[in-house]
UniProtKB/TrEMBL annotation:
Compartments (UniProt record): Secreted; Bacterial flagellum
Pfam families per the UniProt record, alphabetical: Flagellin_C, Flagellin_N
Species, as recorded: Muricoccus roseus
Source species taxonomy: Bacteria, Pseudomonadati, Pseudomonadota, Alphaproteobacteria, Acetobacterales
Any one of the GO CC terms: extracellular region
Full protein name: Flagellin
């Protein structure tokens, strides 16, 4: 190759190649600064981007699981509120039953206590029937009434956790006893009141445990999301301080490359002096 040629300017070619490399590096750096990502798409790093997308999918799944648990928590909180009121009413009912078990009551007194008992019994029924959230209840086993077991997703894999519904009829006491003996029987071990009170307490314990589990699951999911986001950041986030310093260096290098290319392009001009 002739060193002194107007057809082939080796110096300009070298300068142009260097300038192109600088421009490519500058474009990549500007992309990292504008997006905040070292790996913004598969073109930057296919393997890292694929892993990042998988992690993002896990985060989206866990977030959705927590949203679903939140809806179930609404049903559960409503259930616990209703059961708490039922338990309070049952305490009042016990007091009335003890009075009804007294054989010395007059007919008038017994009628008044029976009326009080029925009023409290109605309250219990209302608390149970009103313990619904978004049309769902855990105090009814009939699906037609919005009852039945509730299976909620708890993680990004769709694994479920089941809350078992209870039959509200098993929590509702029988009608007012007609005499002292019937009231005493209801209060005795294995009697109607004792059985229903035990069922209420069991339901409170079960749903209370369910509530604790779901709260801990939500907390764990949030911590897991934080961990995944930290790992994702380490994988794809750009070091903006480093990129800023690199940007300035590349801008200067670009200017120098442009000047070098200009000088190289002027080299063939010196050949004109040979023909004067």
């Amino acid at each position: 190759m002739a060193l002194n040629s107007v057809n082939s300017n080796v110096g300009a070619q070298v300068a142009l190649q260097s300038l192109n490399r600088t421009n490519d590096a500058l474009s990549a750096t500007q992309k990292r600064i504008s997006t905040g990502y070292r790996v913004a798409d598969a073109k930057d790093d296919g393997a890292a981007f694929a892993v990042a997308q998988s992690v993002r999918a896990d985060i989206a799944g866990i977030t959705s699981a927590n949203e679903q648990i939140g809806g179930v928590k609404g049903v559960l909180d409503t259930t616990l509120s209703g059961l708490t009121k039922v338990s309070e009413a049952m305490s009042d009912i016990r007091g009335v039953l003890v009075k009804l078990a007294d054989g010395t009551l007059s007919d008038s007194q017994r009628t008044q206590y029976q009326s009080q008992y029925e009023s409290l019994r109605t309250q219990v029924q209302n608390y149970i029937s009103d313990a619904t959230y978004n049309g769902r209840t855990l105090l009814d086993t009939a699906s037609a009434s919005g009852g039945g077991n509730i299976a909620t997703v708890r993680n990004e894999n769709g694994t479920t956790y089941t809350l078992s519904a209870v039959d509200g009829a098993n929590l509702t006491i029988a009608a007012a006893p007609t005499d002292a003996a019937a009231a005493a029987t209801a209060l005795a071990s294995g009697g109607d009141f004792s059985t229903k009170m035990a069922a209420v307490n069991t339901a409170l314990n079960t749903f209370g445990s369910n509530n604790t589990y779901l709260e801990k699951q939500v907390s764990y999911n949030k911590e897991k999301i934080d961990s995944l986001e930290t790992g994702l950041g380490a994988l794809v986030d750009a070091d903006l301080a480093k990129e800023s310093a690199k940007l300035q260096a590349l801008q200067i290098k670009q200017q120098l490359g442009t000047q070098s290319l200009g000088i190289a392009n002027q080299a063939p001009q010196s050949l004109l002096s040979l023909f004067r």
